Structures are given as C-alpha cells and as structure tokens.
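Q: Hi! New to this. If I give you a protein sequence and the SMILES for fe (ii) ion, can you show me the bound structure?
A: Yes, paste them in.
Q: Okay, here:
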Amino acid sequence: MLRVATFVVLGFATCVLAVTYPNLQPGAQIKLSTSSLQYSGQQVQVSWSGVYNPTINDAILLQIPASESLLTVFPVRYRWVGQSSNYQSGAGTFTFKVLNERAPAIFLYARNVTVGTNGTIEWDESDDVTGFQDTDIVAASPVLPLAAPNEPTHVHMSYTDTEGEVLMQWITRDIGEPTVQWGLRPGNYSQEEVGTYSTYLRSDMCGAPANTTGYLFPGIMNNALMAGLPPSTRIWYRVGDPEFQFSPEYSMLTPPRVGPNSEVYFIAWADSGQATDDGTNEWDWADSNPLVTAPYGTRAQKNATLIDVWQQDEAQQGSSLDLTRRVTMDVNTGRNVTLFIFNGDISYARGSVGQWDTFGDQYQPIFTQAPVMMIPGNHERDWPDTGDRFYPLVDAKDSGGECGVAYGKRFIFPQPSFDEQWYAFEHGPITFLQLSTEQPFGAGSPQWIWVVNTLQKIDRARTPWVIVGIHRPIYTSSIYGNSFKSDVNVAEDLRNSLEEVFYQYQVDMTWAGHVHLYERTCPVLKRTCLGYNATDGTANAPVHVDMGNGGFEFTWFANPTPPPYWDSNYMAHGYNRVYANGTYIHMQSVESDTGRIIDEFSLVKPVGWKPNYKGRLNQLMYFFSNYTEQTWYEKGINSDALWVTPIFLPATEIFDANPQIVDILSLSNTTLLQNINAADSVVDLAQIFQAYQAAFNNPAFYTTTPQPGVASTYLKEALQPLLQLFIDNAARAQADPSFDPATFVATKNAGAPAASRG
Ligand SMILES: [Fe+2]
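A: Thanks. Here is the predicted structure of the protein with fe (ii) ion bound:
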C-alpha cells in the first residue's frame, strides 16, 4: 500500500517557528483552549493579554500554515479585537471555529493593521492588501497541530453518466488508499471500492492571488465509485482510508430508475458562495452590526461584528448561510432529495484555498446526502489567455487566477475532458445538459457541436424532460451591457448561438445564475412569448429561469421595468425545490431566510408525449421568413438553426456569386477552401456558416479588409443566395404542414452539376 506523507508535522508543537516576528512584546501572550485540533470545525477559545498600547485597528489573525509568513500566505480568518465581548485594554477572548486545513495553525495578534481606503480588507485587489505584515505581530499563540490530519473533509459526491453510480469525493492531507464502504444497514458495509486521487499545486494556478498569497496546499482530492446501486434505496456509507481514518457514517437515498415512470425531488440554485458561521441563528446584515452606516448590499466596514477574514465577502455572501441552513432543514425533514444542481459561482474563493475550505465545511452537511452537479461560473473559470471565451477581446479575471483548475480538481463530472467543462446526465424523467458559458459556445465550437449532437440523441420516451444548465442567462433583465463579457452581451450571444437549437430540440427549461436575482420568462422565442398549447398544455418554447439569487449580494442593475416576456422577477435570496415525474414538473422558489415561496409554477406533458423536431424547425423557418432583410443578414451570420439540419448546395452556386468567399475561407477554414477547390461539387451549408462565423469573430478579418463595413458587405453578399433557400423552405413549410425541409433540399440538389473551382 502506497503511503506518502505530504507534510512532516511531528513535533510541530515544540519546534521553533519558521517565521520570525521581530516585534513580539515581552509579556504579551495568546493562550488556546486546546493543545491540538481534535477535529475540523472545533471551536477553539483564544485569549490574549498583556498587549501594550492596543489600538482600534488591532486584530487576531488565524494563520495556516503556522510556518508561513503573512507576506507569502494570507491569514485564513481574523477578527478585530474590539469585537471581543469581554474586551479590556490589551486583553480579550474569542472563540474561533478552526478547520482542518491540512497544516498546523497559529493565532497572531497584529497591531495597528492598515486597511484599504474604504475601510475593508480587500481580497482580489492586491493594491489594497496592505494590512498584514510580520512586523505588526506583537504576540503569537502556541502552534496548534492537527490531531487527526487525515480526517476526511469536503465530503461530497456526484453522478456519473451511468445509471446507478455515485462518485464519492473528499479531501485528506496525505496520499492513502481512497476507500468508500457502503451497505443497506447502518454500520454494515457489504460493499467496498478503492478509488484514485489528485491535487493541484501552486504552479497549476494561472495567476494571482491563486498562485501567490491565496495558495496553501489544498490537500489530496480523493474519489471512489459506488456502482450498481439499487434504485430508490437508503444506503449507509463512509469514506476514508483503513489506515488513516474514516469519516462518520452518512446515509443517502439512491436515485430512482431513469425513465418516464420515475419521480424525483431535488434542489437547485446558483451563485451562493460561502461565509463563516459565527454561531448566531441567522446572518442578517442589519441585525449583526448596528455600527454599520453603509446601506444594505454594500461592503462591510471594518467594525462589523463579522468574523470572516475577507469581511467584504462575508457581507456579500452571508446569505449563503441562510441557504445551507434551510436546505439542510429540507433534506432532514423527510423530503427525499436525490440531487442538488449548483449552476456556477460556487465558492467565490477566487484564488483563496482558505475560502474553499470554508465552503467545503459549510456545504458538507447537505453534500453528504445527495450528489451535487455543478457547472463553472466566471468566478471559477475566467482568466486571460487560458481558454475562456472572452480573451483576447476582454481580460476577464474573475477566477482570481484559478482558471477552472481548482473547480475541475475539486468536483468531478462526466465531461468530455478536464477543460471541456460541460456534460450531460440523466435523473429520473429528466436529461440535464450542464454547459460552460465561460468557454466558447458559438456556432461550430466544440461545445456547440456537442450540444447539438447530445440533444439529437436524447430518447424523449425515456426522459421526456430536458433542462439545460448555463451559468450566464440567455435572457436577463440586467441592463449591464457595455462590454463583450457583460450580461446583456453574453445573453445576446447565447440567444444567437443556442436559442434556436434549444427551441428546435424542445429543451423545456434553461437554469442560469450570474445575475443575482430570481426571474423566470414565459415560454419564449426571440423575445416573443409563445405561450402554451391549447390542446395538451405543453409549453410552446423553452422557459428560462435565473436562479442567481443563491446568496451573493444582489444585482441592483436590473431593468426596473422588465420586458413583457418575464413572468416573475424577485430580489430575494433563495433556492428552488423541484418535483418532477414523466408528465409534470413543479418548481417552488424559496426565500432562504424566511422560507417564503416567492414563485411557483408547473410545466406539463401528456402521457406518451413525443417531440416534433421537424415541426419545430418548420416553425423556426416560418418565424424567420417574417424577418426584414436586415434581420435576415444578422440571422445569416449568427443563426445556427439555419444549419442544424445538414443542407448541401453546389459549390459553384456560392462561388460564382461570391468570389469574396475565398478571402473569408482563407482566414477561417482553409481546409474547406481546399476541399472545394479540389472539385468537391457539393458543400454543406453548415460548414459555410461555421466558417463565416469564425471569420466574423476573427479580429484578423477586420484588419485584412479596409474596414469592418466592407467585411460585413462580403458576408452579406456571400450569404444572400443561401438565405433565399431558407425563404423558399419557409414558404413551402407554411403551405404544407407535412413538408420536410431536408427532403426538399435533397430533391432540389439532386442532379446538381458537379462543380469545380481552380
Ligand atoms: Fe457569475
């Protein structure tokens, strides 16, 4: 058995500190209520005394690892000394919840800490981090070693793409033999499976603070598979290592069988983040801090009675504590929850391993009871020149240098590859597509092709419902819209790339986040409410829900008068309870701190419902035929519906009319150009549109033509004959309900003369 100690910690309690604090005051001391941390989350009493000349800007810091200088690793938590309930000049007491962060801890008294200009300790703007210096430390506690370094922490699980499988995941300090044991009775483990492990290093991070002051060793990320689980059965399990330590025993309900006769109950949200639970019943901004004069929703001031090290984050994400508390209540009060959906902006750690640890501790009570299926948000993925969709037009730094690696290592999903962060899975009567809006999703991109292929293959007799997860919303009432990465622009990109695909393949809903509020559209296509079918009650288009109200500070720049395609808009923190069977989905949006239901709605399908993708395609074409020429031009560049069904045209038809296509293809798809030049007589319109889109998005396209207007003319002229074909199709579809556009085109193209060029 392979056993590798990643840290040698023996004797830490007595050894000399690796960090030298030059200004320690004689007589100043910090005492702890325990000589070692017995378990993660232990409450440790910290008492200090004998400090001369204390100031209002003094703070008690929790530093992990104890051996690291404050200059190289930020403290994981702090509290201002004045927050102590028994504060006297130079003395006081706090109780800290200390997590197992895989290294010994130390408490430090920092004097006259300098804070940012707005009175906060900033995390993600390093120029404001002037607070903590080794020279500020006037007292240090004994080092607090870990009594149980390999206690499993961050316990959570996910579904794979195979029915009856659950992948357990947890963190330890050292490499061991990751083991899950389970059985049908408490304490009786008839099954055991050994898995694998991984981790990430400072050098795996893409930038600061993830590879600077935010990094501490994140631990060994273990996983082990429970396969062949019986459906809808309560099991008892534990994870860990036979030689290190096992977790406590947990129990969970295995998922029901996949199929239309199955029913499921689950919970969904996005954008919640993490915060340190200070032990009060409920986090509430106004109650917690009478000293604060700032309005609700702005940053915490330094005198706030909040204890997280990043006080602004505590203020911004405090409502996440309400979410985890109420979801815990839901799960523990008899609701048979078998799934959590968490659609991006997970921890807002943004490069701080310490905040991921807070997250792991906060969510473990629910994530040990059912699998959680996530997608990356901007705060997990975005970093310049690492594959996000915004570079090079915009430098998006929202991940704090994590660039999707911390997320990808911590949570395993059935993705095509590590950095292709999208996947599908089935749950009861639903197929979920979980997408990454932080990576390219435009027409022809690997993700876009995967979406179309996956939607085409879903057996709707098996899973009548299809729900798509996207971090950024495809419809939003946000009016933030002045850059390539802003809400309005990305929503428009999503509609241009995917709305018609979702419509044609009868996606029932999209569930997004990112914009921090709750809102829900009518069944909508191209900003037009299409309502419900009068005969069977089914929705005539996808419904789009933004559940970005999970816990982070609200988005206040929403349109005060939202367009009419909104059925519901709320500014309240919460999550969604979902019940689904083969003919019915019911959703409740719950306000976390009160339990109030702020929105409730249902979708239905008749028994034996069958999709009608061709009918939807005809509808799309009819819809487009009413567009003006200008709109047609825009559609031609951006529309994917135009090439969802492969349509072939003689190459000569395009080239004879549009010699400029050589310029376009030489920039975007030289292979296609060569194929056509090699006398391949027929071209797939899909490839042409794809090449045009690539050209349109290629900055070189604009620099190699005199001006953007000229480039646009190229495209317009080249697309004109192709668009006419679709107008013809639409007219036929309107006149003949049984019309099949693919057959029509095939017939039209049959006998087309072989063309050659060159
Ligand atoms: Fe976001």
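A: Residues 388 and 438 are 6 Å apart (CA to CA). Let me know if you'd like me to explain how to read the tokens.
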